[in-house]
């Protein structure tokens, strides 16, 4: 709205003055205030007649609006987009684990998973990832230029959850990336799970426990946008205690996701992302 008003101001012109601009205002004169009972001109009922008239000129360019983010919070299968790369599809199942079971699972996972801190070095400055992680699987997993070493020692609860998700989805997973968000300051930045070792059109099954955090998605811009994400489609998906989100098809190729930091305090949240990893270089696709 403010932007539209600003445009109207920019596009509109003032008639009756050279170059369509208003004449420079004259300094107020003491006697004119005295005549009007010490009221400035703009407070008088009858405004002094002016030659200047605002003429609205319709903006020639098409106005582009930043689309409002959509919200997905109901169970269901959603086709997010369809493109040359295929259909991007997600499946949201709130309450996949009922809340009583999710309570004790959360406590056990918090305590038993060997949570670790990854540290990145960029331009000789090191910084810690704003979350703790752990990796399970026979194969290593490299993302953001750091390799998680193989860890075949699956916790029995994780094996049980993997089997429950496999039965529900029909996919067989061989690896798991666990994330622990300790509080509202922990997050994961925009990215796609599109490492070569995940193969083409990876299926990711993401199970959440603990505090509800918003999982945000944004469509990758078309080549004409030159990497500008301003006008892309956006989605917000609250992931609460026990909810399962399955991403498949072209979702990783055509969309990015993140879990942003929050302004208000949040308790711990655990997110388990079950994946299928292929040994490289066989998993490498072009
Ligand atoms: O915590 C989440 O819900 C998302 C985690 C994530 O994006 C990832 O592990 O790649």
TrEMBL record:
<dbReference type="GO" id="GO:0008198">
    <property type="term" value="F:ferrous iron binding"/>
</dbReference>
<dbReference type="InterPro" id="IPR037151">
    <property type="entry name" value="AlkB-like_sf"/>
</dbReference>
<keyword id="KW-0539">Nucleus</keyword>
<dbReference type="GO" id="GO:0005654">
    <property type="term" value="C:nucleoplasm"/>
</dbReference>
<keyword id="KW-0832">Ubl conjugation</keyword>
<dbReference type="Pfam" id="PF13532">
    <property type="entry name" value="2OG-FeII_Oxy_2"/>
</dbReference>
<keyword id="KW-0558">Oxidation</keyword>
<comment type="similarity">
    <text>Belongs to the alkB family.</text>
</comment>
<dbReference type="GO" id="GO:2000766">
    <property type="term" value="P:negative regulation of cytoplasmic translation"/>
</dbReference>
<comment type="subunit">
    <text>Interacts with the ASCC complex composed of ASCC1, ASCC2 and ASCC3. Interacts directly with ASCC3, and is thereby recruited to the ASCC complex. Interacts with OTUD4; the interaction is direct. Interacts with USP7 and USP9X.</text>
</comment>
<dbReference type="GO" id="GO:1990930">
    <property type="term" value="F:mRNA N1-methyladenosine dioxygenase activity"/>
</dbReference>
<dbReference type="InterPro" id="IPR027450">
    <property type="entry name" value="AlkB-like"/>
</dbReference>
<dbReference type="GO" id="GO:0006307">
    <property type="term" value="P:DNA alkylation repair"/>
</dbReference>
<keyword id="KW-0223">Dioxygenase</keyword>
<dbReference type="GO" id="GO:0005739">
    <property type="term" value="C:mitochondrion"/>
</dbReference>
<dbReference type="GO" id="GO:0005829">
    <property type="term" value="C:cytosol"/>
</dbReference>
<dbReference type="InterPro" id="IPR032854">
    <property type="entry name" value="ALKBH3"/>
</dbReference>
<keyword id="KW-0479">Metal-binding</keyword>
<protein>
    <recommendedName>
        <fullName>Alpha-ketoglutarate-dependent dioxygenase alkB homolog 3</fullName>
        <ecNumber>1.14.11.33</ecNumber>
        <ecNumber>1.14.11.54</ecNumber>
    </recommendedName>
</protein>
<feature type="domain" description="Fe2OG dioxygenase">
    <location>
        <begin position="172"/>
        <end position="278"/>
    </location>
</feature>
<dbReference type="GO" id="GO:0035516">
    <property type="term" value="F:broad specificity oxidative DNA demethylase activity"/>
</dbReference>
<keyword id="KW-0379">Hydroxylation</keyword>
<dbReference type="GO" id="GO:0008283">
    <property type="term" value="P:cell population proliferation"/>
</dbReference>
<feature type="region of interest" description="Disordered">
    <location>
        <begin position="1"/>
        <end position="51"/>
    </location>
</feature>
<dbReference type="InterPro" id="IPR005123">
    <property type="entry name" value="Oxoglu/Fe-dep_dioxygenase_dom"/>
</dbReference>
<keyword id="KW-0560">Oxidoreductase</keyword>
<keyword id="KW-0408">Iron</keyword>
<keyword id="KW-0963">Cytoplasm</keyword>
<keyword id="KW-0234">DNA repair</keyword>
<keyword id="KW-0227">DNA damage</keyword>
<comment type="function">
    <text>Dioxygenase that mediates demethylation of DNA and RNA containing 1-methyladenosine (m1A). Repairs alkylated DNA containing 1-methyladenosine (m1A) and 3-methylcytosine (m3C) by oxidative demethylation. Has a strong preference for single-stranded DNA. Able to process alkylated m3C within double-stranded regions via its interaction with ASCC3, which promotes DNA unwinding to generate single-stranded substrate needed for ALKBH3. Can repair exocyclic 3,N4-ethenocytosine adducs in single-stranded DNA. Also acts on RNA.</text>
</comment>
